[in-house]
Amino acid sequence: MRLLVAQIGARRHYAVPRVLHGAGMLDRLVTDACGDLFPWSLADLVPAFLRRDALSRLAARSSGLPRGKVTGLFIFTVSALLGPSRRKPGGNNISWWLHRNRRFNELVIGKGFGSADGVYVFNGAGLEVLKEAKRLGLFRVLDQTSAPMRHDAELLISESERWPDWSTEADSIYNWLPMAEREEEEWQLADRIICGSEYVAEGIRVLGGPAKKSRVVPYPCDHGMQPPATEHVTPAEKQEKRCGQRSNNLMQSRTRSTAGLHILFAGTLNLRKGLPYLHEAIRLFGAGRAKWRIVGPPAISRQALAMLGRVAEVRGAVPRSEMVEHYAWADILVLPTISEGSANVCYEALARAVPVITTPNAGSIVRDMIDGFIVPVRSPASIAEKLALLEGNPSLLQEMSLRALERSREFTVNTYAFYLENAIKY
């Protein structure tokens, strides 16, 4: 079987087309843009101070595929770069995405499916391709990258009502319905639905979707962010590097009560990621009791951002290449998410030997009390309690750090390739 992958953006750093290519199952990738293709391959020639952020991000994308295997949609990409922003505060972004997704599908179909005998698309962005593939009698795979949109919309509307001073979104459940209906029609057209976690698969089942089509395939840990085993730095070593205390080959430990935990949040700053509960957890634990760092693009009100800035260091959006430094700084990642597919930051943190405190709705591979803690949704008190436990027990934190690194090595690209190939075929 040879699949045409239709993908907007660099989802999971092109893991799907790369894996399919390695298995001899990729016909080609059709995408908006990537740094391998002209003219984006010339972006490095433009001085950094002249580049727009969007151009820099495009230039940094590399599919890792032979150029003959990648088709870019230049006009589609330029129209997004030059057109109106999709992130107007208080605006309805859903209609923008609906239009873009439909247009992307039209362009993919216009390019033809070549010698492919199947297609691989992503939820909300593959309906028309799936319809055409069905008409042609081709095999159809849908990657469900998140919990079902109808489920998410209901959760997020509830959060907006609970935290009116935090949200910048004016969308209601009714604005989301067209995208949710589009996604649910994709379920019916697909032969296989690939889910990153049991949480996603369960969401499809609860909504009455075709659960028998679902296959759970956890994502690979980003081992580009993982230090070699011989270079692993334990939490105790991190502390001593901060203090500059070494005596011959023996490191003199520094207690947590003196040094304080380094606690990281990474991801978009929005209601979905549980930012109000992070803020409350900081208050309960004590802002001055630890060093708190929040990294990611803001999508909350200015008032809420200012509130976070008073209790934590807020870095904003950073290039992915810089995240290695933030994970190296961190002792713990906290992600109090309301809903995900399978949160990428959890995989990244484990690969950097950083234990994770998150919720069941993260769809993560974190194991409770082994390489982190799974706490209830909307429970800042539980987060503060686990942080206090780790603060008072450095040996537990160090043990969890080691277990985190070991856990990440169970989820390699090769493992992902094996399970994805089998999920598609069987």
UniProtKB/TrEMBL annotation:
Organism superkingdom: Bacteria
UniProt KW Transferase keyword: yes
An example molecular function term from Gene Ontology annotations: transferase activity
Keywords: Transferase
Xref: Pfam families: Glyco_trans_1_4 (PF13692)
Keyword match Transferase: yes
The name this protein goes by in its record: Glycosyl transferase, group 1
Organism encoding this protein: Syntrophobacter fumaroxidans (strain DSM 10017 / MPOB)
